[in-house]
Amino acid sequence: MNYHLIIEILQNMKCIETESDLMKINIVGKNYAVNQALEERVTKKLKGLERYFLISENDVANVLLTSYPTKEKIEVTIPTKFAILRAETSDADVFNAIDKVVDKLKDQIRRQKTRLANKKGNPLYEAFLDYDLLGEPDPADEIVKTKSIVPEKLPLDEAIAKMDLLGHSFFIYTDDETDKIAVVYVRNNGGYGLIETE
């Protein structure tokens, strides 16, 4: 294990842990100094999510702030006993990025609540609190088309080529090495990702 590399990474990261009324908030800055104003803004905004979704005192919101030459990126992950809330966004201004990521999390909550509205016995449905505060469901959230596919057996590089030729952001196929269903996708920050099934 390269201890010098670990020490260098830790020196470039600043970690602050705060507590809202319920959830704990762990803020990490990568190439970024997390000051009190940032900490307060993140805490205030994330604390507002407790009005919409059941979050306990054992839940920890993990926030990663990363500074790039032309933008500031924020990633928020909140694993709860019901679901994992996760969103990321970038902006030239870190405070705008914080606002955008919280809006994305609220939108995620609203979409899930809409999908579960007909399943009120579902324990996940009970995790949603003041849903009315989020407003009416967006008709664009409804499933308007269902498509069935038979995943082709392909090597990964061919799956990527087909995805690119089709102009899609993901492609489902059967991996020729594992004989299992896999999904290759275009990552937001460049490159490709691969989801393999077991």
Keywords:
198 residues, alpha+beta, SHC Adaptor Protein, 4 helices, globular, disordered N terminus
Brief digest:
The chain is an alpha+beta fold and 198 residues long.
Structural topology:
Layout: H1 3-11, E1 13-19, E2 24-30, H2 36-47, E3 60-67, E4 72-79, E5 84-91, H3 94-116, E6 153-154, H4 156-166, E7 170-175, E8 181-186, E9 192-196
Parallel strand pairs: 2-3, 6-7
Antiparallel strand pairs: 1-2, 3-4, 4-5, 7-8, 8-9
Mean pLDDT over the residues: 75
Count of distinct strands: 9
Radius of gyration: 20 Å
Provide a count of the helices.
4
Commentary on this structure:
It is a single chain. The chain has four helices and nine strands; from the N terminus they run αββαβββαβαβββ. The protein has 198 residues and is an alpha+beta fold. The protein folds into two domains: 3-141, Double Stranded RNA Binding Domain (2-Layer Sandwich); 153-196, SHC Adaptor Protein. A five-stranded mixed β-sheet has the order 1-2-3-4-5. Helix 2 packs parallel to helix 3 (94-116). The longest helix is centred in the middle third of the chain and has 23 residues, at 94-116. Residues 1-20 and 129-134 have low confidence and may be disordered.
